[in-house]
Write a structure and sequence with these properties.
Length: 161
């Protein structure tokens, strides 16, 4: 009888986080090393890792512990040799897709910059804020105190001054 781990949800959203910073993934790997399950069911390959190298490392770590993985969306079951082969192909395609998305985003940002569009948040700086900062500074108030008083960042105070 197989012990199956089905429901973990990683609370991390960043694709740049290390495995050790992804708490639920780290916990799952810890549980795996303690042999609390022998089959892992994952919704999709891209949920276990964000790049091919990391994905293969995790799968190899689980394989060394004799833990099989089933990826539901892709229909891949690493308990079979064809499933292992398909897993490697799909994980490579997933990394390629992420790189294409990143490339398109960077192209769009560069195009916007070339067209003179301002990127990022709109500034909070307006005439009344400039007047308030200068008035408080003229009264001898320190930068940090002005920042706290007006509920703006220290960098904003410096920018205004």
């Amino acid at each position: 009888m197989s012990k199956i781990l089905v429901a973990i949800q990683d609370d991390s959203t960043s694709s740049r986080k290390e495995i050790s910073q992804r708490t639920q993934l780290s916990q799952m790997l810890s549980d795996a090393s303690r042999k609390l399950f022998d089959v892992l069911i994952v919704s999709s390959i891209d949920r276990i890792a964000r790049n091919t190298k990391e994905c293969i490392e995790i799968v190899n770590q689980l394989n060394e512990l004799n833990i099989d993985i089933i990826f539901l969306r892709e229909g891949v079951d690493t308990r079979t040799s064809i499933g292992r082969m398909i897993f490697h192909v799909f994980s490579s395609l997933g990394e390629y897709e992420r790189e294409m998305i990143r490339s398109r985003i960077m192209s769009g940002l560069n195009r916007a910059r070339e067209q003179g569009k301002k990127l990022g948040r709109k500034t909070k700086i307006n005439e009344s804020l400039i007047t308030a900062v200068k008035l408080l500074r003229d009264k001898g108030m320190g930068i940090k105190d002005i920042s706290k008083e007006l509920k703006i960042g220290v960098g904003t105070v410096y920018k205004i001054l």
